[in-house]
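Students often ask why inverse folding is considered easier than folding. One informal answer: many sequences map to the same fold, so there is more than one right answer. In these notes we will look at a single instance of the problem. The structure comes first.
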């Protein structure tokens, strides 16, 4: 690790999706997006569904969609514990569009059996994935 980077680990219940040196991070905090550079003050934050942007000395700019979780940084070590996380290249756009339509349908119609919070969470997760995937498509053109 260089003197301009810090260690970032991104972990889901299924896998360690990333572990390496980064120079910057942008993440979707529950109160809004926040950025982290080297020597950031220690903090813990809850995360909502959204996009995570990292800048890595070895890989350059990378983007992923997460569905929520927690973030912690202490000294030169940051960790994202995410419910789910997908790199932009891993996102199945057709599946995300279908999930968004199902979630919109569930939340748009009153049904006492509908779990509204779950529908809203599904909608936010699908919207984050589509936003990240669209950015990947634009970048490759």
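Output (designed amino acids):
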């Amino acid at each position: 690790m260089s003197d301009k980077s810090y260690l970032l680990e991104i972990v889901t219940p299924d896998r360690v999706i990333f572990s390496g040196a980064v120079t910057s991070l942008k993440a979707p905090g529950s109160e809004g997006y926040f950025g982290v550079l080297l020597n950031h003050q220690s903090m813990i934050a809850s995360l909502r569904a959204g996009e995570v942007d990292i800048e890595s000395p070895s890989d350059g700019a990378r983007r992923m969609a997460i569905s929520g979780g927690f973030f912690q940084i202490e000294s030169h070590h940051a960790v994202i514990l995410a419910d789910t996380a997908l790199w932009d290249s891993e996102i199945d756009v057709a599946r995300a569009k279908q999930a968004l339509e199902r979630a919109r349908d569930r939340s748009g119609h009153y049904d006492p059996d509908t779990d509204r919070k779950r529908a809203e969470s599904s909608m936010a997760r699908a919207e984050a994935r589509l936003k990240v995937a669209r950015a990947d498509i634009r970048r490759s053109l």
